[in-house]
């Protein structure tokens, strides 16, 4: 049986592997293994040093103060996406119908339900591994999860009845994926990252389809990058949605918000 690693040894190995928040990560890894064997901590550490995202190893990510289940291969919800949640929460009244398109782990819909439990949240993703997580994160809170391409698996009864659509669709330009850290490039599904040549292809499809699902005066919110925001906003305008751009310097986040005609 190997000797148990001490917390300072864990910190040292993480730091040597280039982990910026080595102390915090060590605390979480040690806490995750207190009831298991020393070999399991060593195994977690080896996989973290090899580049597996911490959240996929722990099985959860902290998002908007919630513990969101995340499985291997599934996109880890990021802090900037909290801006999408905050802006959508402002626009969703109690009882509103909300669609979370490209939901991944379901983090955005789960955070919205945590802020207002009367929302009717429907979430969809093309990746079955992601929707398996989304079910764990959403169904206990009353959300419904569908697997398929964008809006296609959603009940047609929702057409024209949706108050708020949120989408953190993939928006990384294909060429830029090679420059992403291995945590994303290797350990998150390509379909979660690749937004096509300019990064706008999936967004464009979301914006094109959204108006027929929205109530008059309903809202579409799409996370994007600061550099892409003018193009994203132009796509909104081209499909009859009046756009405005919200930035958060603290979160390093940008969201385009479009409103359909009343
Ligand atoms: C950037 S991740 C965001 C996930 C989640 N919304 C979040 O913020 O944590 C993009 C997600 O879009 C999904 N996706 C990509 N293309 C899709 C499509 N055509 N239809 C539905 N989901 C899609 C991916 O599987 C991935 O889970």
Q: What does this entry look like structurally?
A:
The protein has 262 residues and is of the alpha/beta class. It has 2 domains: 7-50, no CATH class; 79-259, 3-Layer(aba) Sandwich (Rossmann fold). 36% of the residues lie in helices and 21% in strands. It is built from 11 helices and 9 strands. The protein has helices at 7-16, 22-32, 38-49, 54-58, 82-91, 107-115, 128-138, 182-185, 190-193, 201-209, 229-238, and strands spanning 60-63, 66-69, 97-101, 120-125, 144-147, 162-167, 214-224, 242-248, 253-259. The strands form 2 sheets. The chain has a 7-stranded mixed β-sheet with strand order 5-4-3-6-7-9-8, with helices on both faces. It has a two-stranded antiparallel ribbon with strand order 1-2. Strand 4 (120-125), helix 7 (128-138) and strand 5 (144-147) form a beta-alpha-beta unit. Helix 1 packs across helix 2 and helix 5 (82-91) packs across helix 6. The mean pLDDT is 94. Bound molecules: S-adenosylmethionine (SAM). Residues 75, 77, 81, 102-105, 107-108, 124-127, 130, 149-150, 168-170, 189, 191-192, 202 line the site of S-adenosylmethionine.
